[in-house]
Design goal:
The protein is mostly beta strands. It has a single domain (30-406), classed as Porin, CATH 2.40.160. Helix content is 0%, strand content 57%. The protein contains no helices and 19 strands. It has strands at residues 30-33, 36-53, 60-75, 78-93, 114-126, 129-136, 157-167, 170-181, 192-206, 209-220, 228-241, 245-258, 267-279, 282-291, 325-335, 346-355, 362-375, 378-389, 396-406. The protein starts with 29 loop residues before the first strand and ends with a strand.
């Protein structure tokens, strides 16, 4: 399963060790009356993706196009936003996860054709204080527990009411949601998962340290094996050493246990630590993440996260196996300035070593790489992932070429 690695265009690396993608931005707002504006939002993305797995299936190949468009009307502290998105498969030699398509002898690429309402929300907000109700995008912290799955063509959103408050150095964020609108599209039986979901997040920033406490209570109506309660702490800090380099440190710790109708009786820990430094345009990051296991019975799960951003771009660990996962990783990145023909040129390479939390198993290892720049308003991206299996899953190789533009 060898393939030559050819990296071409890509977008700027979004975070120390995460994937990179362009985000949509609105056109300049248009004033239609005194104190009333209309913002139009348009974003288009074209992506080619291949998947090669050592499991007897044919290689998957997909060329998909996504168009997202919406409008936001603001009047003083009130705002109403409506947005739709659609995905079209121009090349569809892949398993799109839709059951009515019959047997598809290909690996999964989770970008089915769909046309749906992405967001419909009403908000009342002043200086970071207020509430939003309706179908909305929710990304909390680094999206490890709650995110929008922005890498996939169809975005994850939530039917929810969310309140936010900034009181001096203190930030409070509380959400009650009744439906998780997934990436699988309107024709999928997994199009949405209903339940009672509570996301609580409170933090304070003092002396350059951002410290937070969080609680995520997930009680699914039908997906009961993923019902859980998670409580944890997170801290991050940026440290500048004059004349030397800049350091960014992040750490999280959490505990998860069964909740609601979950038939399993378990308690599992979560640990994450990451230290990155930037020197002369190079970025180096070393990190460790543990999704713990309760003696092999059940493991720490994050079913509402932007999972592609964690534990390797090959997406081997979207669901944590019962024996848990320990991810040791290091990333080397470089931003290249002053290249007129390739503005924003950047590249990074990440190596992961995966071990089990229970049973002392060598699960496998993975190399990830990306390269990107912008051509005018178009963000271009190439990414590559290669998972080398030892005792879990199978060898998996993925490659992406992507172009994205937003207004």
């Amino acid at each position: 399963m060898k393939k030559s690695l050819v990296l071409s265009a890509g977008v700027a690396i979004g975070s120390i060790a995460g994937p990179a993608w362009a985000q949509e931005g609105p056109l300049p707002p248009v004033a239609v009356a005194e104190g009333v504006t209309i913002d139009l939002m348009v974003a288009a993305r074209l992506r080619y993706e291949t998947v090669d797995q050592d499991n007897g299936l044919d290689d998957a190949e997909a060329l998909t196009a996504r168009l997202r468009g919406g409008v936001e009307i603001k009047a003083g502290i009130f705002a109403m936003l409506a947005e739709a998105e659609g995905t079209l498969a121009l090349v569809d030699d892949y398993n799109d996860t839709l059951p009515f398509n019959g047997v598809e002898p290909f690996p999964v690429i989770a970008d089915p054709e769909t046309l749906e309402l992405n967001r419909l929300q009403l908000s009342v907000m002043r200086d970071g204080n207020g509430a939003t109700i309706g179908r909305q995008r929710i990304v909390l912290d680094d999206a490890r527990f709650v995110g929008n799955v922005g890498w996939r063509q169809n975005e994850q959103t939530f039917d929810a009411v969310r309140g936010q408050a900034d009181i001096g150095p203190v930030a409070l964020d509380a959400t009650y949601a009744i439906s998780q609108r997934t990436i699988f599209g309107v024709d999928s039986p997994s199009e949405h998962f209903d339940g009672d979901f509570v996301f609580l997040n409170g933090g304070v920033e003092i002396a350059g340290i951002d410290a937070k406490a969080f609680a995520y209570l997930i009680d699914y109506d039908e997906r009961i094996a993923f019902s859980s309660q998670t409580y944890g702490l997170r801290a991050s800090a940026d440290i500048n050493l004059p004349g030397l380099f800049a350091v960014k440190a992040e750490a999280s710790v959490a505990a998860q246990s069964d909740y609601g109708a979950n038939p399993a009786d378990y308690t599992a820990p979560y640990y994450s630590a990451r230290l990155g430094a930037s020197v002369a345009g190079f970025g180096v990051t070393a990190g460790y993440e543990e999704l713990g296991s309760d003696d092999g019975v059940a493991a720490f799960q994050t079913p509402m996260a932007t999972l592609h951003a964690f534990n390797g771009w090959a997406d081997i660990f979207l669901t944590t196996p019962a024996f848990g996962v320990r991810d040791y990783y290091v990333t080397l990145g470089r931003r290249f300035g002053g290249i007129r023909l390739l503005p924003g040129l950047n590249a990074n390479v990440t190596y992961h070593q995966f071990d089990s939390d229970f049973g002392n198993r060598d699960l496998g290892s993975e190399w990830d790489a990306s390269l990107g720049f912008k051509a005018g308003p178009v963000a271009l991206l190439a990414k590559y992932a290669n998972y080398d299996a030892e005792t879990f899953a199978v060898d998996t190789e993925k490659f992406w070429l992507q172009a994205e533009i937003s207004f």
